[in-house]
């Protein structure tokens, strides 16, 4: 079961049919999402901060991702700026990376685990949604998967070109998404242990080049820390986020850390499964996989699969340490989805091990699990609900907005709406947002002028107070009408009798004296 070789086992005929069909279906699902939904606030922010001439300065000054991600968005929008085309690099990456993981596990001669991992990663509803958004995760997952595959090939064949391809993929992944640090540490452990078990001289050319690639990765992280990360971690928005929608991803003061680690690991797998019940099932398979890897061989043996399990534990441990230092959340969120690249193979090995006496059931059960992901899927609370995310509704809402509010009007919006309107009122372009006395943000988006004071309007009382603050900061006379625009993500205006619904997307409160 755990043999490894540089010559993978031949593929059964059904694999040669199933994989292309699954790839086409996964692509179709992602294409549909990419064409159906309007840009969410983060996507609009990423688009606007990738505008010509200023993208690098903006990404360094205010970005929340490394520069290669913004570079991809920058050059994509030079070709076309439709929602579908802007998302194309990400949905293609999201469709392809499970196949790369499949090829990696085949190189380890784990064909059944390879297929199970491929199906889970290709058809996880949360991953489908995540990889059709303008975020760095999809490209980071593809680049990290390529780094894993080429590293395995390099270790098996002692191939320096493959080693350099692995390092290049890893470097680009590091420059795309900060959470690739978890994979970087795991791959370092994986490669080091594989090197130490080999009889080749320690200071061979291959080993020295590998060590140099590790130093290169460290140098990139030092560069990112000096140019971005140190400033990013000190911003108030990070503290607000930790205390806000990501508060469940960090332990509370006095909380039992072992209990938090166990429950949050289950949440990590629940995000991968897009379902809490299936997440606990994945946790059981994950533990079964780790145990089976270690009890299936002599105690003194250090097989590639055992090394894989150690690399997996390294990735999860580094992620947990990042959580304790309040750098990264550890829980049911997209922020550490890179851990799925290591968790899924172990889950697949656990399923294979449980069914080892009836191996013919592994494929049907893998297909059944994949099929059950969709009816049991739960909406990711960090995403706009699909029922309120329709692109045609957004375009109709903007049309109604233009026809209902007189040109030249002053609009008060939450920060999320400010970015969305920057994209859609400007006909899929962006105007510079002016940063006034904190927290004031203003935007000239003809024929309107918009301003914002906070991420979201939490209550009518808060909004009333903010209006008084806004008039003072902007020096607006008391008779100046102000239109209030809210995207409705927090559903505040629905409780306000004067709210007018715009195509189930935008909510507008008419001006008051």
Tally the helices: 20
Question: What would the principal axes of the Cα set say about the shape?
Answer: globular
The count of domains is: 2
Based on secondary structure, the structural category is mainly alpha
Q: Reading side by side through the largest sheet, how are the strands ordered?
A: 2-3-4-1-5-7-6
Main sheet record? 7 strands, mixed
Helix-strand string: HHHHHHHHHHHHHHHHHHEHEEEHEEE
Task: Determine the mean pLDDT.
Answer: 88
- Gyration radius, rounded: 25 Å
β-strand number:
7
Which residues form runs of ≥5 with pLDDT under 50? 491-499, 509-513
User: How much helicity do the residues have?
Assistant: 55-70%
Which percent band covers the strand fraction? Answer: 5-15%
Spatial separation of the terminal alpha carbons: 75 Å
How are the secondary structure elements laid out?
Elements: H1 13-36, H2 41-48, H3 55-62, H4 67-79, H5 83-107, H6 111-123, H7 125-130, H8 137-157, H9 160-174, H10 180-196, H11 205-234, H12 236-243, H13 257-273, H14 276-295, H15 304-324, H16 340-354, H17 362-373, H18 391-404, E1 410-413, H19 415-424, E2 433-435, E3 441-445, E4 448-452, H20 460-474, E5 482-486, E6 500-502, E7 506-509
Parallel strand pairs: 1-4, 1-5
Antiparallel strand pairs: 2-3, 3-4, 5-7, 6-7
What does this protein structure show overall?
The chain is mostly helical. The protein has 2 domains: 13-373, no CATH class; 390-509, no CATH class. It contains 20 helices and 7 strands. It has helices at residues 13-36, 41-48, 55-62, 67-79, 83-107, 111-123, 125-130, 137-157, 160-174, 180-196, 205-234, 236-243, 257-273, 276-295, 304-324, 340-354, 362-373, 391-404, 415-424, 460-474; strands spanning 410-413, 433-435, 441-445, 448-452, 482-486, 500-502, 506-509. Strands 2-3-4-1-5-7-6 form a 7-stranded mixed β-sheet. α1 runs antiparallel to α5, α6 (111-123) crosses α16 (340-354) and α6 (111-123) packs parallel to α17 (362-373). The radius of gyration is 25 Å and the shape is globular. The chain starts with 12 loop residues before the first helix and ends with a strand. Mean pLDDT is 88; it is low at 491-499 and 509-513.
